[in-house]
């Protein structure tokens, strides 16, 4: 193969799978170079900065991979006040970033009206785009937040392998709308929609990862976030070791392959070099992401007194300090 996409310029599932399994560094240079060229041609050379505010680490869910899951008792819980979030928004605007990303556990203490009011205040007092990443909330809440001015919503589908997803992400009692359907609803409500996956979840196979990449294309995503899975010792999944012959490794090179392939199948998407990538390879992770298809960085502007408690995985790399 001389180009990553093959002769007709299209990347089919077989080619995606072959690239995912490719482990010859010289061959992979072709993939990195093509992802970089497509990034340059479609979204230019600017690296866009989004200020990340981790608004609350309360969570009602029991996701087996995530350190802020409800079942983790070894964690001090916090919820920021609206004024604290507004202070962060002003700081983000002063730093010259274009977007505030408000992320949290699935915390119904952040009530629908509270979030709507906060979004409206940020839109009224700053020039920022507002991105929400608050988990699987009710359709009426998502609608109200959009009406209040929220621009974008991030909700990763984590893996397209349904059996694996159900194992790592148990449904909430009484929940009516599954994550997949919420992604369609968000699109219908007029949000720009971001999604993505973790790479190297125990039990994740190369085939399912190829399906994930094909979904990026099929779903018309505006943003695609991809990072390696990082075990958190206070979670059930940390005790599970994926060691089958088809197990995807949770390493930086594999995560970069998914970033590069995401760029090739969605040339215009906004793709971050994620904190998780910067965490497993502190020296080079984020730079490699940016050279292999990514065009976004998300500096963490959460106040220091809360930052350490938003521990979705251990030793999160600090960017923006
Ligand atoms: N409650 C929100 C935000 C979750 S944190 C939601 O569920 O959408 C944002 C992302 O961090 C998750 O979607 C997941 O992909 C990632 N994440 C969580 N735990 C992780 C871990 N142990 N290793 C790597 N990424 C993780």
Q: How would you portray this structure in words?
A:
This protein is α/β, with parallel strands linked by helices and 321 residues long. The chain has twelve helices and seven strands. A seven-stranded parallel β-sheet has the order 6-5-4-3-2-1-7. Helix 3 links the parallel strand 1 (48-56) and strand 2. Helix 4 packs parallel to helix 5. The radius of gyration is 19 Å and the shape is globular. Bound molecules: S-adenosyl-L-homocysteine. S-adenosyl-L-homocysteine binds at residues 65-66, 103, 105-106, 133, 135, 155-156, 158, 198, 227, 229-230, 232, 276, 312-313.
Task: Pick out its properties.
12 helices, binds S-adenosyl-L-homocysteine, alpha/beta, 321 residues, 7-stranded parallel sheet
Count every helix, treating DSSP H or I runs of 4 or more residues as helices.
12
Classify the secondary structure makeup into a structural class: alpha/beta
- What strand line-up does the widest sheet have? 6-5-4-3-2-1-7
Categorize the overall geometry.
globular
Q: Helicity, in percent?
A: 25-40%
Regions with little confidence, pLDDT below 50 for 5+ residues? none
Largest sheet: 7 strands, parallel
Query: How many beta strands in the DSSP annotation?
Result: 7
**What proportion of the residues form beta strands (DSSP E)?**
5-15%
Secondary-structure element pattern, one letter each: HHEHEHEHEHHEHEHHHEH
User: Which cofactor or ligand species appear?
Assistant: S-adenosyl-L-homocysteine
Mean model confidence by pLDDT: 95
If you compute it from the alpha carbons, what radius of gyration comes out, rounded to the nearest whole angstrom? 19 Å
Distance between the termini: 42 Å
């Amino acid at each position: 193969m001389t180009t990553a996409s093959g002769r007709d310029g299209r990347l089919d599932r077989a080619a995606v799978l072959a690239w995912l399994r490719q482990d010859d560094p010289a061959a992979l240079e072709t993939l990195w170079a093509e992802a970089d060229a497509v990034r340059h041609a479609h979204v230019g050379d600017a690296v866009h900065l989004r200020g990340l505010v981790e608004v609350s680490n309360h969570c009602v869910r029991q996701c087996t991979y995530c350190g802020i899951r409800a079942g983790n008792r070894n964690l001090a819980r916090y919820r920021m006040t609206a004024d604290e979030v507004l202070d962060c928004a002003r700081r983000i605007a002063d730093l010259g970033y274009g977007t505030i990303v408000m992320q949290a556990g699935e915390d119904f203490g952040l009530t629908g009206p509270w979030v709507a009011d906060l979004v409206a205040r940020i839109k009224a007092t700053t020039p920022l785009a507002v991105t929400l990443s608050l988990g699987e909330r009710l359709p009426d809440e998502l609608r109200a937040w959009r009406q209040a001015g929220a621009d974008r919503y991030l909700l990763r589908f984590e893996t397209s392998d349904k059996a694996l997803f159900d194992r790592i992400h148990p449904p909430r009692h009484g929940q009516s709308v599954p994550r997949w359907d919420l992604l369609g609803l968000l699109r219908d409500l007029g949000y720009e929609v971001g999604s993505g996956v973790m790479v190297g979840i125990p039990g994740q196979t190369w085939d399912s990862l190829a399906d994930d990449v094909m979904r990026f294309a099929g779903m018309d995503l505006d943003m695609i976030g991809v990072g390696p899975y990082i075990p958190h010792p206070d979670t059930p999944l940390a005790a599970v070791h994926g060691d089958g012959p088809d197990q995807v490794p949770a390493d930086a090179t594999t995560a970069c392959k998914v970033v590069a392939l995401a760029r090739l199948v969605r040339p215009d998407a906004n793709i971050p070099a994620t904190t998780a990538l910067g965490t497993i390879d502190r020296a080079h992770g984020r730079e490699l992401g940016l050279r292999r298809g990514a065009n976004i960085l998300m500096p963490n502007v959460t106040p220091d007194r809360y930052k350490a408690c938003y521990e979705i995985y251990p030793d999160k790399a600090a960017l923006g300090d």
